[in-house]
UniProtKB/TrEMBL annotation:
GO terms for molecular function: ATP binding. One of its GO terms (biological process) is DNA repair. Residues 1-25 are annotated as: Disordered. This is DNA repair protein RecN. Belongs to the RecN family.
Length: 597
């Protein structure tokens, strides 16, 4: 059984990021993923390479990183009956934008000041994400990935063959102001298309739209004739009940007022034999207590005085209520007629249960739809003018976008070509062809951008996806990434076998450039080339062996140094770790790498 790296209870406190670095991933723990049972990787700053035999599971490291930062989980990679997981420890400077987003999610730094991320998932496809000890949606972690991680693999080479991706690369090189201009162009294009489509729709469906408008107009006129007010139906129901029950309500209110204050005006027909009212009784009790010298009784007398005031006030309000009651049959008939008119509107224009609010909502929506159905000559002329103005604005923006691309193309091609010269393609020439069709602008402009490559003098410049071999395409992609790397704010960059199809001198140059990237970023590279691995600051080897106890193949990841590293490089060079010739070549590569970084 392969020996697995033991996971520590807590790693040693992490140092603050060194100058030139904007953060790093110091630790990665993977369990239950693919052939990996349980391993912990200590990732150093600078350049980390991951090597191993074909099929050993090197790409599981990249998979683990992608999953940790919100990537979609492939349930086929999770062992049956096991809940797989990935955990990582980020060391970030205090001013990193990641901290603000993490705080918004309720995350907190660990005791050593680092930020802990975790992702777990089952074979059934369910997954959970945690950030700084808090459960968060996976989308939150994916947002952080934009500030932390950039993964580049062989699929990036496939994307590079698409003209749209080549145009995006050129736009990115042109800078933030140009990218903002492209966004403005997208918005203007959407506005123009919406106006043009609306005009075409109205002209092509004039008869149908006019008929629909008539229906809406009739409904709006019917509602306007009644002129309902918000909440009026509820108010009318209350008023109708009060008018219909005026006599009964008056009797109830008079009985209550008589009990509280008595027949002080004689309006209630009292005959002098009425029981004592509440006000008189309370007043009698208050006077009796107030005449006492006992402090407790005096305080109670004050409470009774307050009660007399409350009862008297209620009596006044009851008198006002009775005075406002109106048993006028004509007024009641008027209210009932109004309520019937509103009920008719509700039945016709509101959904069940919506009431008058549904009528008002239908009216507002109908008015909005009616404005979109207007096919009168005046409306069409106004819409046509708006469309033409939007098209003119779009044309002006398209011209500015094209100019920005043309200005950036030469510098971008020159910088990529300079990098290719160091990747054993010194005679290669890179250029852009920008074809502009002002009559057919798209969301991103009126340009079709094609990256051209001439591998050697005399060779015609052809689109890179047609004129480049697999190895050349890898080098073009790496050259573009090197050009962009200086301005890329993410602290962690991952390259998954981008050196496929490359060998010889070019392989060494790829290693040197990756090491150069590692001066400003933490770079993790999965590679099969010893020339690249020789430049590593940290060298991890993936080993695979049968686990007879579990009946599966287990993967172990270990760091190699000194002679173990020489043996691994010798294996990569000759297939024989113990070959004297291979080891001599490995030592030579290490010496060359140490002298050329």
């Amino acid at each position: 059984m392969a020996t697995r790296t033991a996971r520590r209870e807590r790693p040693a406190p992490q140092p603050e990021p060194t100058p030139g670095h904007n953060g790093a991933l110091s630790e990665l723990h993977i369990h239950g993923l693919g052939s990996i049972d349980d391993v912990t990787l200590e990732l150093g700053r600078g350049l980390t390479v991951v090597t191993g035999e074909t099929g050993a599971g090197k790409t599981m490291v990249v998979t683990g990183l992608s999953l940790l930062f919100g990537g979609r989980a492939d349930q086929g990679r999770v062992r049956a009956g096991v809940r797989a997981g990935v955990e990582g420890r980020l060391v970030l400077p205090p001013d990193s934008p990641v901290w603000a987003r993490a705080a918004d999610a309720g995350a907190e730094p660990d005791e050593d000041g680092s930020l802990i991320l975790a992702r777990s998932f089952s074979a059934e496809g369910r997954s959970r994400a945690h950030l700084g000890g808090r459960s968060v949606p996976v989308g939150v972690v994916a947002e952080l990935a934009e500030e932390v991680l950039a993964v580049h693999g062989q699929t990036d080479q496939l994307r590079l063959t698409r003209p749209a991706e080549q145009r995006r690369a050129l736009d990115r090189y042109a800078g933030a102001a140009h990218l903002a201009l492209v966004e403005e162009h997208r918005a203007a294009h959407a506005t123009w298309r919406a106006l043009a489509d609306d005009l075409d729709r109205r002209r092509g469906q004039a008869r149908e739209l006019a008929q629909a408008a008539d229906v809406l107009r009739h409904g709006l006129e019917e509602i306007a004739a009644v002129a309902p007010e918000p909440g009026e139906d509820v108010d009318l129901d209350t008023l109708a009940k009060r008018l219909g029950d005026a006599d009964a309500l008056r009797s109830v209110a008079d009985t209550a007022r008589l009990a509280l204050v008595g027949d002080v005006t004689g309006e209630l027909g009292g005959d002098g034999d009425l029981p004592q009212d509440a006000t008189s009784a309370l007043a009698t009790a208050e006077r009796a207590l107030a005449g006492s010298d006992d402090p407790t009784l005096v305080l109670l007398a004050q409470d009774l005085a307050d009660a007399v005031a409350v009862v008297s006030d209620v009596g006044v309000q009851l008198a006002s209520y009775v005075a406002d009651l109106d048993a006028d049959p004509a007024r009641l008939a008027e209210v009932l007629d109004r309520r019937a008119a509103l009920t008719a509107l509700v039945r016709k224009y509101a959904d069940p249960g919506e009431g008058l609010a549904g009528v008002l909502a239908w009216s507002a929506d109908a008015a909005d739809r009616l404005s979109q159905l207007d096919v009168s000559d005046e409306a069409l002329a106004t819409l046509e003018a708006e469309r033409d103005a939007a098209r003119a604005e779009l044309a002006a923006l398209s011209a500015r976008v094209t100019a920005g691309r043309q200005a950036a193309a030469e510098g971008f091609a020159a910088e990529v070509g300079g990098e290719l010269a160091g990747l054993a393609m010194k005679n290669a020439q890179v250029s852009f062809r920008i074809d502009t069709d002002v009559d057919q602008p798209g969301p991103d402009g009126a340009d079709e951008v094609v990256l051209l490559l001439s591998p050697h003098p005399g060779a015609p410049a052809r689109p890179v996806h047609k004129g480049a071999s697999g190895g050349e395409l890898s080098r073009v992609m790496l050259a573009i990434e090197v050009v962009f790397a200086g301005a890329d704010p993410v602290p962690v960059m991952v390259f998954d076998e981008v050196d496929a199809g490359v060998g010889g001198q070019a392989a060494g140059e790829i290693g040197r450039r990756l090491a150069r990237l590692a001066r400003e970023h933490q770079v993790v590279v999965v590679t099969h080339l010893a020339q690249v691995a020789a430049f590593a600051d940290t060298h991890l080897v993936v080993d695979k062996s049968p686990d007879t106890a579990l009946g599966v193949t287990a993967t172990d990841i270990r760091a190699v140094r000194d002679e173990d590293r020489v043996r691994e490089l010798a294996r990569m060079l000759s297939g024989l770790a113990d070959s004297d010739t291979g080891q001599a070549h490995a030592r030579e590569l290490l010496a060359v790498a140490a002298g050329r970084q």
